[in-house]
Protein 1
Amino acid sequence: MEFAALIIVVSAAALLGAAGLAVWYALRRWRHVGYPAYWFAVAGALLGGLGGAAVIADWGAVFSGGPVAVDEVLPYMEAVKAREPALYERIETSIIRDRADGKSAEEIRANAKALVSSYVADKIAFLSDQLTYELYATTRDILGYLEERRDYATCADVALGRFKGDLDPRLSADLVQRNDNTTLRVIDAKPQPDAVRMPAEEFAQLASNAFAQATQIIGVAPDEVETLLSGEGDPEKTCKLMKAFIDTLLAQPVGVAASALRTLAAGGAPTTPPPNSPPPPP
């Protein structure tokens, strides 16, 4: 992050330094001003450097009570910083860039959470049985909560992995806390390269049976499933279908459900675990 910050400051200084020279040239030509050119270049560079530093240090927040510190944007930033320094640096850089672009606190938080969500999704295939099960149980309960409130569009987007923005305002305080705690446990977890995944053929059969049961539970015609999974169908039906599908998988014994869910999460993902340095204690 320090290197990115240095680039921002130097670039701003160079840009305004050049602008200062342009001002000097214009004044010299049209107003016959005799001040040395380097005065204008230095003044512009100083202004640019101070401006860049203001963006990096978030001076506006000091005077306006605006954005909180980087480590407070998400409730698990300290854990990310300790366990996943590379992820922390990506989040920190994203926050700095978004603030420089004038984005709202909500947009900044949503973009930071998107990076964490991507990290969690990549790590699912290497989690323990119990944590994998609990992660999807939390997702199932989030879908159920959104369904109860008839927020079908959000529910469908979450279920299909295409929701954009900050989900927390749409959830109960208990669900927000539970989701944050589960995410924190994923961050703290040491990857398990030997975590069992259900073979593709076995998973295909299990998924087919699960969707068949789900369609019967919610009254959706089997030939609608493909359309709903593509995101082109009725959001209410998609929401209910995916919740029922996950319910059916979670009805299996924990070990069976976890191996199936790892296969589901890994579809096309690398077969090597993501780095986790420094590793948490066993």
Note: The chain has 13 helices and no strands.
Protein 2
Amino acid sequence: MACIKGRPNLVKLVCEAPLQAKQSVHCCFSDHTINTPRNQVYRAALVKCAKILSERGSVQALDAARMTIYSLNAVDNKDLSKNQIEGIARAHLKDSATLLACRDVICGLSISPHPGIAREFFSYAINMATLFEDYCYRLMSTVLAEFDIRPSDDLTFPLDGGGQTIKLDGLFGEIPNQILMECKYKSIRSIPDLSRADIYQTVSYCCHVNLRPMVAVICVPAFEDDAPVELLGTIGGFRAAKGKIHVLSISLSHRPDELEAGLAAVFSRLLEE
């Protein structure tokens, strides 16, 4: 054969014996098909988006999604897990941002606090996690001032060794009456939806040598907008923060004054305990 057919696998070629006359060259032919793992992720995300759009009656956007899906008819429509998609993203670093965005669409992760409703790619244009954190901090500062509890001047605390520090989302009051706030911009309906990493992080903050929180709260966006603020539940079983971390859902569709009233009612109960 006068020339190579396909894409030569140079790594495999170099790792074997030196090139000899009539030696076979390992080639990959998968790049000659549209049915690649990367395109399978794109198709799965488009199918999910088309389903969302059909439920909301977005005719023009739905037609565009269907036309794109039609152009990918030769691509298998596979059920891909979160780990599989992340593996494909690691193998295609140039497209990793797009592939991870598709992962969030397919798996219903933290694209918006309302998965499947109207704002699928909103947080990729704006850093919603930081906005949510700042919003909760301002609300808490206003509400806790009514209890004569002021924001801490410093949210950064050093760790011994390595010059590392931790930075809190919110800290209010003075030792021993501190209130620690952590924010998680994720779709969380109930306590079991919180990841262990989120819980461990908050517990580790509570155990810092310079912190003595009497109340620790994790704020998450509300999945249902019936109430401005809702106490989803309490996590216990450790010594810090009187053994409890309270999880609060904060609505993004209510007015700030409604949220402040809801937070005031919740903290009235928490501070009495």
Note: The chain has two domains: 8-125, 128-272.
Protein 3
Amino acid sequence: MEFWETTPPRLGCLAYPLAIVGGFVVMLLLAVAVSFSATNSILVGIGGAITASFIAWRNLRSDRVEKERENK
């Protein structure tokens, strides 16, 4: 158990790609459901991927993770 507590979490290796793909798919499907054209749906999906990657980066910054670990 002590080994796990001293090892820094490696959340970014899957969190960023999954956030990007998830943001793209969700926004793409939303745009298609609203009856946007294919080009506009792709552009909205790319915007969703960029937004999701920014949110993932903001929540998984190393300084934020370290502050949360120190507070525990």
Note: The first helix runs from residue 2 to 6.
